[in-house]
């Protein structure tokens, strides 16, 4: 059963790609820090879910990963943060952009060009890619996000869900070492969201891109992750494997929306029905329940 | 009561977003409009308070044709909370934001104070009263937008994607709150992709695809119909997916609630042993 429950991925080497130690940050004019003593390590190639109550500091932490904090937002940053070997405080957003791509929570804040194609090509122009390569990358990113037919449309005329796809395509095209996605599918319908998660998962597996996904809808996203970080009131309070985090008492107290599959396991347990493992998605739950039901019938 | 009669709507860009939609929402109904991106959900509900007027067909709100009434008057009756709170917020403090519409509607000072207090408390925003909405997180801004509409106590409340950016606890509060509003006789319409939220709230579900309504009924039936959900680009709730994997045991597949699921499984196990 272990093979099914703990979907451990083959990680060739364990190299830290993001390391923070005692990271504390206060926005300009902020009364108290939005991040408090955050120390964490993200290994190269991991698929990380970053979650926690709204206002807990998830977005703020993402802004540190690509240098928006401290370079754009100023404010007061203490402690250390290293991304892909660079000390964030000492490297500009421009330099960090080669390593880290960020998909914003609100796509409107990210898109500005007059056509989708130009928006997706913008980052590549800045990297100085040859024209032919650029064209290939743009085509590929549009295809991966399923928006080839929006190529000539103006981003500001698109629906929220379509804009989100464009924002994701912009970052995909860059093929950064680390992709940080801040609730990238909140405006998308569930099937659309699932497709995007699958594309991201694929990039994670095939190209080894490290993924940090901010998400509340764990029912949809948890199956892809191999590392979960839960924040609460500016602190990283839980940090570990999905299963350990989702089943911890603390996660329940903070109000992390544990997947329904795990919840069903818990309410059955309370009534004396024990499954042989803890499911975090529907397939696992079905398999574990089949065992119990078959045993009973047999 | 809101009556939508064979409504067609074409945007100036020539995109035909609604293609003959008819729907009746009675006073006190609780309806969830679901369906894929671009299906016309937001376009449809923007007709309820007159923000959009039909190209063909008609929308009647409490006996009044929306073409013959100002948006300001309709808004008093039908409150609309936008999908993206940034399209709605503009004041310098949360308190001002929530009071803004009340001042416009001409409420007395004392009443405004009371209602602002009530709405801010209700949505857990007390500590941000004096903060700028733009200093808040995405999820918090969404709650400010919600508070500013609920403050004027409209008969009909339309919530476009209310759960976006909300954590589990806030969603649970929102759910209890919607159920309570509805119990008080308010008409509540939500536009959402959040199948788990719908599974927990259990409203009447209206499913849209490509500018048309393709199904209407109980969440329990609609959300567990594989063909329908695929057509509307949503995925069945997780509990229903689990039960689809247990069909060999003769268990029902139209289960969406975790406690109902538990009881069915316990029954099966007790019956068997």
Describe the structure.
The complex is a heterodimer of chains A (298) and B (273). In chain A, α5 runs parallel beside α7. The longest helix of chain A is centred in the middle third of the chain and has 17 residues, at 190-206. In chain A, a hairpin with a 2-residue loop joins β9 and β10. Chain A has helices at residues 2-5, 58-65, 68-71, 93-96, 116-127, 131-144, 160-174, 190-206, 218-221, 242-246, 249-254, 260-270, 282-297, and strands at residues 16-26, 35-43, 47-51, 76-83, 86-87, 100-103, 178-182, 210-214, 227-232, 235-240. Chain A is α/β, with parallel strands linked by helices. A six-stranded mixed β-sheet of chain A has the order 6-7-8-3-9-10, with helices on both faces. With 273 residues, chain B is α/β, with parallel strands linked by helices. Chain B is 38% helix and 22% strand. Chain B is built from eleven helices and ten strands. Chain B has helices at 41-45, 71-77, 94-104, 109-122, 138-150, 168-183, 195-201, 219-222, 226-231, 238-244, 258-272; strands spanning 2-10, 16-25, 30-35, 56-61, 64-65, 78-81, 156-160, 187-191, 204-209, 212-218. Chain B has a six-stranded mixed β-sheet with strand order 6-7-8-3-9-10. In chain B, strands 2-1-4-5 form a four-stranded antiparallel β-sheet, with no helix packed on it. In chain B, a hairpin with a 2-residue loop joins β4 and β5. In chain B, α3 (94-104) crosses α4, α3 (94-104) packs parallel to α5 and α4 (109-122) crosses α5 (138-150). The longest helix of chain B is centred in the middle third of the chain and has 16 residues, at 168-183. Chains A and B meet through α7, α8, α12 and α13 of A and α5, α6, α10 and α11 of B.
Characterize the biggest β-sheet of chain A.
6 strands, mixed
The radius of gyration of chain A is: 20 Å
Largest sheet strand order of chain B:
6-7-8-3-9-10
Order of helices and strands of chain A: HEEEHHEEHEHHHEHEHEEHHHH
Strand arrangement, major sheet of chain A: 6-7-8-3-9-10
Choose one word for the global shape of chain B: globular
Roughly what percent helix of chain B? 25-40%
